[in-house]
Every structure is written in C-alpha cells, then in structure tokens.
C-alpha cells in the first residue's frame, strides 16, 4: 500500500487533522496538496494543542517527512509564524519539510483583494471567505500574468515583478469602494519582507514533484492530507460558496503531482452533525437552542478566524454525494461525544424540492437553498462516551446512530472519535488497528 488520503466530506473542520496525525504512524510522508492558510487543523495530545495551517499535520511526528506540493497557495510570513509556533512547542523540523518551488505565493495584495471583495458583496451573496487572500492568489495563478511562484522569489527579476504587479493592483483596487491599507501595496516593503521570508525558507524549498514520484516508486507510504471539505470543492461543491481549489478527493493528483494509480485508499472524515462557516446554503442548519448547544459542546468556532460555526443535523444526502465523489472506502465519524446530552437526534435522509422527494444533491446553490430536509429521528444515548475505547461498549443508541449513518451513506465505518485527544479514538475497521 503506498497512498492513503484523508478527505473532509462536509464544509471543512471535520477533524481531519486529528485523523491525519493518528495515521502518521503508518506513513513515511504527509502531503498537503491544495488550499493554504485558510485551513486550520488541530491536534490535541494531553494538555498540548497544536494548530497548523500550511504545515502538514505529520510535522508532529519526528519520523515523518512533510511536503507542501504545487497545488497549495503559500503565505511565507504565515508559514514562518507556524514553524516558530510548533518549534516553540518542542517540535523539531530539521530536514522534514519540503516546500515545492511551484507553489504560488500569497502576497499582501491578495489579502487586500479578498478584503475588498468581502466589503463589496453584502448580505446573502457574501461568500464569507477567511480573508487569507486564497481566492485572489488562485485567480492570479489561473490568469498567469501576475502570479509569483515560490521559486521566483530566488530569481533576479523578483523585484521587477513585485513593482509591476503592485502598480497593476493599485489600479484594480482603486475601483473598489473600500479604503485599502497602503502597506498592502507598497512594493519596497513587500520586496524587503518577502526577500527576508525567502532566505528563511530557503533550506526547505525544492522540487516536490520529483521527490514524491521517486518516493512512490520506492514504495514509500504517502498520506495525502486534504484541506477544507468536499462541499467546498471549486468544481463540485456548493458554488459559488466554495473555496478556490479542488478540496474533494478529485484534487489529490492535480495538486500533488502523484498519478491516481498510487492512491489506494481514501478515508472520508465527517462530524456526527454538520457545521459550516461562512455564507452559502446549509439545508440542515439549526437556528434554535440545539445549535447553541452543539456549538458550545463542540467548541464550534473557526480554528483560523475564530468565527462561530453554523451548526445543524447530519446530512446523509450531502455526505453520500461527497463520499461517492471522493471515492471514499471508509468513514471516520468524529465528535460523537458532542451529541451525548440530546434526547433525540436527526439525520437528513432525503430532500423535498419543489414538492418532490429527491435523494441526489442539487448542483445549483439556489436549488440547495430551497430544499427542505426530510429527517429520520433517532433516540439519543444521554451518557458520557468520552472514555470509551471499544465500539461494542458504546451505548446501543450511539451504536445505532453511527450504523444508521453508515447505511444511508453506504460506506463502512473505520473510526469513531469521542473527544479531541489522540486517545479518544475508537478503531472500528482495520485502519487504526495495531498502530
Ligand atoms: P480540521 O480542519 O478538519 O482539521 O478540523 P479543526 O481542527 O478545524 O476542527 C476540529 C475541532 O474538533 C478541533 O478543535 C479538534 O481538536 C476537535 N475534535 C476532534 N475530534 C473531536 C471529537 O471527537 N470530539 C470533540 N469534542 N472534539 C473533537
Ligand atoms: P479546514 O482545512 C472550514 C470556507 C470559508 C468560506 C469559503 C471560502 O480547516 O477544514 P476561502 O478563504 O477559502 O476563500 O473561503 O470556504 N473555508 C473553510 N471552512 N474549514 C476550512 O478549512 C476552510 N477553508 C475555507 O469559511 O466559506
Ligand atoms: Mg479546520
């Protein structure tokens, strides 16, 4: 076996970081292949909490090499802060990090553009991005005329590129109503800052594509760490309320440079309920006390932005769709403990759209916004599950809840998580056994 992937099946924050960290024990290399500092992956070990944004979650395991491949958009200043943060927590990076010189670099003008568009589009149409400059950086990458890759930071024409792009961006941003912080468009400052970042990151920069191809050919075990979730996928998610990369399973090869023949297994991560942060349709969203209860118990506040996450019931129509799309072979069902105090729990099993019952996921966001969820209601278990280590020891109602989800989604359960700590994890299938 050479390649396993971990993919979020909802709108992000499914606890992918926790699962990736556990799987590093059976991996030689962990790869981040799309997204950027919009991601926030959390790993909890006893009293210590680690949060990573660009760094693969494998960085915490001293035996694992970590690769940031071409599909990522990289903010070097933020990455350096992350490196410093984990180093201060006792993690040694040494030669365990490789940053592809093909990654596209996020500059202050991208953040300025993200902020400007966010100001411009009010109300329901607002995407509610993380304001990390992700969309504008990918837009420039696709446009090709004003983009800078990590490798370009070490070339002679870097300063000239910064000067000319700053001029262009000033013109572009003058068309927006909002004031732009002049520091975000100051070519001298940007060149000086990014030259300093470039020297600091130099030891890590190289050709990740060649390295990864050599590694798979040498039977190294690769773990692909998805960021965001499949419903935020640019092509297959709830467009336009999505991120700017292919965050479902279909993005792995394009972003990493590894042909799909090397990817043997794709594990789907989902919460036992649903959350979404930012704008866009969310059929099972709750606005009652239950939402506040879930938010409180699940600590549902954005890891990257601190925004309260919208909360709702588990949506089996959506997760069946994303499991098929991402080629999922096993489910990791996270945050079961968060539902432990509820009398009853609902699963959305179908939608009603224009008077008809449908089981497929509508492709247009306006249709998704109109659907009414059809629920199956299950009894709660009303007991603490946070120290249970074995699936058979879970209360019957909890087992029944997880099994019902598995039946509706039509994918077997591999893992159940009952708390943030590494130890609060129940292996169900073979994936996490004998690690
Ligand atoms: P990611 O972006 O998918 O890696 O997920 P985040 O780190 O943004 O959000 C998941 C949050 O849930 C983190 O704070 C985790 O520490 C926490 N977490 C992970 N698994 C569980 C679980 O089973 N129960 C509870 N209560 N929290 C969990
Ligand atoms: P992880 O990897 C949850 C959401 C934003 C917004 C939309 C577009 O931690 O699961 P962007 O800044 O990417 O242009 O924002 O996508 N979003 C996430 N939501 N978890 C994430 O990452 C997210 N990354 C982006 O809230 O709705
Ligand atoms: Mg997150």
**Multimeric state:** single chain
Strand order of the largest sheet: 9-7-5-2-10-1-11-15-19-20
Major β-sheet, in short?
Answer: 10 strands, mixed
- Portion in strands: 15-25%
Task: Classify the secondary structure makeup into a structural class.
Answer: alpha/beta
Question: How many E strands?
Answer: 20
CATH class of the largest domain: Alpha Beta
Name given to the CATH architecture of the largest domain: Alpha-Beta Complex
Count of DSSP helices? Answer: 12
Chain-averaged pLDDT: 97
The total number of structural domains is 2
Shape estimate: globular
Instruction: Identify the CATH homologous superfamily of the largest domain.
Output: Adenylosuccinate Synthetase, subunit A, domain 3
The radius of gyration computed from the alpha-carbon positions, rounded to a whole number of angstroms, is 22 Å
Return the CATH topology of the largest domain: Adenylosuccinate Synthetase, Chain A, domain 3
Low-confidence stretches: none
